[in-house]
Design a protein that fits this description.
binds adenosine monophosphate; 5 strands
Length: about 140
């Protein structure tokens, strides 16, 4: 899918937000949701989405949505850093299929990195759900109020 097009209400993240599909949630409020990526590029890979916007990508997004999302990315990153103690942390965001986007609901990736541990391939290799639950609980426990 290119940068243009209509928002699909049945995309995977819309289903997760509606509760029609399961997800391992880290935290949420009325505006944003942070949940574990099931095909993680590293242990602890989290996705952050808006629960209210129908933006497919960065170009579509309302300024308010972006403000809330980036605040949520920072809050989640701080908790991840405290909980998992990575040596580094990558924040990525893809726009359009040629850029690597596979789910067309705007989202940010937060990927912890450790020295000497190579980054996994994008959207490959499903994680163990119990491991994801443990990681989500660790990150959630480190959230600042
Ligand atoms: P992108 O390629 O930037 O659109 O990212 C989509 C991400 O969603 C990929 O990293 C996938 O691993 C992840 N993903 C796909 N399906 C699910 C799902 N049901 N629950 C959690 N993450 C998912």
């Amino acid at each position: 899918m290119s940068l243009d097009g209509a928002y699909d209400d049945d995309n995977i993240f819309a289903k997760i937000i509606r509760g029609d599909m399961p997800a391992v949630k880290v935290w949420e409020d009325d505006q944003v949701l942070a949940f574990m990526d099931v095909f993680p590029q590293a242990r602890g890979h989290v996705l952050v989405v808006s629960k209210t916007s129908k933006a497919r990508n960065l170009l579509d997004a309302e300024a308010k949505t972006l403000g809330r999302l980036i605040g949520a990315v920072q809050k989640t990153s701080r908790a991840m850093s405290k909980a998992l103690k990575p040596d580094g942390l990558v924040v990525t965001q893809f726009n359009g299929a040629p850029a690597g986007q596979t789910v067309f609901h705007l989202h940010f990736h937060i990927i912890p990195r450790w020295d000497g541990v190579p980054l996994g391939r994008h959207a490959e290799g499903m994680a163990d759900v119990d491991d994801l639950k443990g990681l989500a609980a660790q990150i959630a426990a480190a959230l600042e109020a």
